[in-house]
């Protein structure tokens, strides 16, 4: 029989959890949205949860008392609702959910939180500023796919932005049974009219059904399971190390900096 993983709240129980002086909580947040014609709606959520599990297992193995919280499986997708069955929480809803989760953690006196984000539309920095003076919980935020840009460049020809080579590779590794490669379109996005948008300094919440044909941005053609496994593990390892550092760091007036 498989062993109960004490670092996973969904699996452990009251008796076991009482024995562990949890130091760091980890909250993955994903999305439920169309991913071209070949990847599941749950792509972002499955990816971020798999990565969080690897990172927590590693950190726990190195002695960190970490607690993986249940994944938030719906993200901010107001601008991608043009595709059927995409689910979305408004930013204000996500803020409220984070506020409630943080209040629970504070109540239980678990005061270090790592949020691992798995969806580009989940722009959470402003929320951390909103909560800054409301809570004792110290929150660190990571967009998981940004933690190792060198690995991303080395492993992929063109990682792509949405359901492209990177995400397709990860899903070929994690859930090949859910990937229908033969149905994928080329993942071509429309060019914007505005120079500022072409150059990347003017921003809009992109209407995804106008930007794309079937929601994909980036070609999935060069994707392989091996690339996905490599990239996932490289990113998870770095995040696992971050969890160990967070567990070791004393929560005093200097956190998270060196004291004088
Ligand atoms: Zn995605």
Provide structural commentary:
α2 (43-61) crosses α6, α2 crosses α9 and α6 (165-174) packs across α9. A 4-stranded parallel β-sheet has the order 2-1-3-4, covered by helices on one side. The longest helix has 24 residues, at 225-248. The protein has a single domain, classed as Rossmann fold, CATH 3.40.50. The protein contains 9 helices and 4 strands; from the N terminus they run αβαβαβαβααααα. With 260 residues, the chain is α/β, with parallel strands linked by helices. 37% of the residues lie in helices and 8% in strands.
Gist?
The protein has helices spanning 14-17, 43-61, 91-107, 125-131, 149-155, 165-174, 195-198, 208-211, 225-248; strands at 24-29, 66-68, 112-117, 138-143. Helix content is 37%, strand content 8%. The site of zinc ion has 5 residues, from helix 2.
Features:
9 helices, four-stranded parallel sheet, 4 strands, 260 residues, alpha/beta, binds zinc ion
Shape: globular
Q: How far is the N terminus from the C terminus?
A: 50 Å
Overall SS class: alpha/beta
Number of alpha- plus pi-helical segments = 9
Q: What kind of sheet is the major sheet?
A: 4 strands, parallel
* Associated small molecules: zinc ion
Question: Can you name the CATH architecture?
Answer: 3-Layer(aba) Sandwich
Number of domains in the coordinates? Answer: 1
Which runs of at least 5 residues are low in confidence (pLDDT < 50)? none
CATH fold-level label: Rossmann fold
Cross-sheet strand order for the largest sheet: 2-1-3-4
Record field, number of beta strands: 4
Helix content: 25-40%
Q: What fraction of the residues are assigned to beta strands by DSSP?
A: 5-15%
SSE arrangement, N to C? HEHEHEHEHHHHH
């Amino acid at each position: 029989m498989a062993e109960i993983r004490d670092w996973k709240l969904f699996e452990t129980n009251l008796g076991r959890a009482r024995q562990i002086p949890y130091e760091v909580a980890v909250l993955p947040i994903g999305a439920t949205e169309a991913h071209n014609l070949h990847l599941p709606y749950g792509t972002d959520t499955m990816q971020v949860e798999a990565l969080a599990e690897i990172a927590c297992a590693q950190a726990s193995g190195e002695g960190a008392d970490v607690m993986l919280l249940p994944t938030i499986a719906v993200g901010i997708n107001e601008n991608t609702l043009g595709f059927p069955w995409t689910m979305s929480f408004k930013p204000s809803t996500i803020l409220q959910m984070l506020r409630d989760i943080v209040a629970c953690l504070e109540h239980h006196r678990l005061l270090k939180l790592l949020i691992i984000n798995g969806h580009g539309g989940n722009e959470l920095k402003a929320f951390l500023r909103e909560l800054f003076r409301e809570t004792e919980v110290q929150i660190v935020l990571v967009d998981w796919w940004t933690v190792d840009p060198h690995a991303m460049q080395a492993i992929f020809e063109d990682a792509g932005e949405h359901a492209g080579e990177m995400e397709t590779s990860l899903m070929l590794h994690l859930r090949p049974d859910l990937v229908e490669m033969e149905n994928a379109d080329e993942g071509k996005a429309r060019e914007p009219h505005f120079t500022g948008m072409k150059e990347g300094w003017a921003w809009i919440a992109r209407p995804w059904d106008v930007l794309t044909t079937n929601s994909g941005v980036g070609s999935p053609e060069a994707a392989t399971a091996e690339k996905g496994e490599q990239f996932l593990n490289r990113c998870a390892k770095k995040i696992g190390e971050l969890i160990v550092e967070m567990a070791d760091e004393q929560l005093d007036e200097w956190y998270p900096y060196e004291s004088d």
